[in-house]
């Protein structure tokens, strides 16, 4: 009986020409057709929890008093720096030209300020401390069709920091789970229940015409809610709660930094921007072409080669947003490898060995990561020793297991995928034996 089920399964696996609805992380990760990857599916934990979350792609208007986040918000509200929200959600921001040039709020949008002017607020992370090191990361995932990109990173045994949008996590939960299974580091990319793509990017032609619907425009409760619900979405789907976030458009000031900090989130910004996110967007004036983006990559790579990061490493803004941004990342990867000594998740460069609230999930520190790569192991097959305890053997970065993150399965995600291949081979073997 068992054998015939296995043989049937082998046929199913081998005949995979037809679209199959993914049922778990491994089956989603195995899809190679972008249309199949982006075909909606239902994932019971999300369906069941949907009523506890705000409407997707809609700015959070308030946190209900019945939500566990409400008490947390009330507890911090009185101590949030008394800085007025900037602009009005969804309408052109008329205040931007009247904001004092002394930048009292350490508003990044105004002056790229990253060192707060309010006591008790932590500075942003805008560089990684290790010389000749790139804090590698991608904003705005999970893109539903990211398998080609994640497969590439996996083939290079390369881990990254991924800044995930709450609404996308709820819509593409199995894709989000792949990040943890692959050992990437997940951070919050807020505005995540808000519609940053539905108008914001399109109107970002210059400061004067900036219609912003970004973090500093929210009131305290809304800003809290944007971050809080994104954290809850990531926890619901992946089992881990991030401890870092990246403000959309870099739009952060001391009020927003403080709210994030009270939620346990480090603010991670950047000093270099490839502007990959603006390419091919007809609404951007003047237009940003693919060649412009490549030129930005080239400049950044040349800066690295000529020693600009010899005393402190770099963080550059790149995206998981669409095919172009992911493909451009792939096309430039080997050049970045050649230009930097080390490429790693931001948290690894910071020795942040417990990247999540759930401390039983660990990732390498800087030295361990470097040593693992120097060991020449590009293999992601994952020794069995790397799964159960979350130790870091066999993989240079995150080794949290599927078991830890979703409560199903019994070994690390990378191991599961390797085992999946083994399983297919075993079943093919069984098929021949059966005949
Ligand atoms: C939070 O604080 C702000 C500013 O002090 C205040 O206007 C608002 O009413 C407070 N929110 C709640 C829910 O108490
Ligand atoms: C993912 O990328 C594809 C291909 O560029 C794009 O069509 C799609 O809109 C993106 N989806 C998400 C959810 O990011
Ligand atoms: C981008 O699209 C092309 C053409 O569909 C595809 O071959 C390639 O794998 C995609 N790249 C990524 C990173 O998804
Ligand atoms: C990380 O740890 C290494 C030693 O293991 C140390 O040299 C480095 O300064 C640490 N970095 C940070 C940001 O703490
Ligand atoms: C490991 O990956 C690096 C970086 O992509 C590559 O240059 C090298 O050839 C790979 N080594 C092996 C043994 O595959
Ligand atoms: C890690 O801790 C969480 C609870 O915080 C638990 O659900 C999970 O099973 C733990 N995983 C392991 C492998 O201990």
Written account of the structure:
It is a lipid-anchor; GPI-anchor. Residues 132-351 form the NodB homology domain. Pfam families: Polysacc_deac_1 (PF01522). It is found in: Cell membrane. The protein is of the alpha/beta class and 435 residues long. It has one domain (43-410): TIM Barrel (Alpha-Beta Barrel). It is 40% helix and 7% strand. It contains 18 helices and nine strands. Strands 2-3-4-5-6 form a five-stranded parallel beta sheet. The chain has a four-stranded parallel beta sheet with strand order 7-8-1-9. α1 crosses α18 (413-434) and α13 packs parallel to α14. The longest helix has 22 residues, at 413-434. Residues 1-18, 90-94, 194-212 and 378-435 have low confidence and may be disordered. The protein binds 2-acetamido-2-deoxy-beta-D-glucopyranose (6 copies). One 2-acetamido-2-deoxy-beta-D-glucopyranose (NAG) binds at residues 129, 350-351, 365-367.
